Amino acid sequence: MASKNSPSRRLKKLAAEIPPDNTIHAILVGLERLENGDYALAMIGSSFIEKALEVAILSRLIPMNDAERGQLFNYENRGPLSDLSSRIRLARAMGLFGPHTFADLERIRKLRNAFAHALSYITFATRQVEDICAAFHATRRVTGDARVPGALSRAKYVHAARFIAGALKTRINAEGVAYHSPTPPADDRLP
């Protein structure tokens, strides 16, 4: 029997933690500037989104202990909300954001899946990836280094992931935890 504080359990706990905003910013900006960090950027950016969605959804549900949350969100438990797609769709159905943000979250999910499952080498300079990044609604004024292939796409991805995760967190903080609350009011930042 594994001990309560086994390395495996400590690793799972570490993976579940949400870092402070300044740490998230530093990680994403650092990866954005790293020449060969496209895979890591796609994975970590989507992980921040995934965790932000979990917290946003939990803010609308009844209070739950760790085991109950695990039954909903943990992949090991085959939870119904263990994947990014399910979280995006439920959060949209709960009215946590509008159709433009939904489309941006779907773009982030598709990019994450492409980076995770492609058998060929893709980067943010890959034409199909650039096309998806060009369609982000959350990126109104984003610039990149024209000398670095894919820099503008990386910047758009980072901005979309940071902006959406930050807006969800700000909204939760502003509203407080509102269990069984009615449909939330519209938020112009999450159209």
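The record above closes out task 2.4. Task 2.5 opens with a second protein, given below.
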Amino acid sequence: MDFGAIYAETRERVADLTRNLAAADLEREVPATPGWRVCDVAAHLAGVAADVLAGNLPGGPGEEWTAAQVESRRACTIGEVLDEWADTAVELEPKIAAAGPPMGFLVADVATHEQDVRGALRQSGFRDSAGVEAATQVMVGGVGRKLSAANLALRLRSGVQEWELGEGDPAVSVSADPFELFRALSGRRSITQVARWAWDGDPGPYFGLISIFPLRATDLVE
């Protein structure tokens, strides 16, 4: 996968989706990211790109880090935010392409937030994009590492793909729709929703490990 090209095409879709939105739409709350509006998601994405390029990763990603990205751009117009992001991307995207999987978290972030914004605007689309596919692979790898650390194994099936994750021979397996898996991997689904997947075995030990971020307390239907 060319992670740089995938990041670029996803970034451009987000820009096309948001640049000409009415003020009321920019102010819409994003259900997938409580407390953020559509314009805040764009500010975060521009901020992540700028921070990564500048090496501003104090202790790794966290709520204070992302909040600062949004707050520092609160007075900016959406056009200014997107122009900053595009300018940063000129240097960042070749670095993503050269690094490959080690910078795949940026593809996962932008692909996840594209769908967050689409959900807020009720403009579904690109659910089988290269960004979604690449992000899924990146986040499945992260889940595999969490399972290994917990000495658990899981056989995960989605669409035409199958993974054996964690340590040892999986005693539990699960099948999930590709888009639902993608959204759950980033914490955009609840435990209740994940429990409805086709599990073979006890899913309980996996609810805290099946996603990069904690699963939601409430259902998110998109």
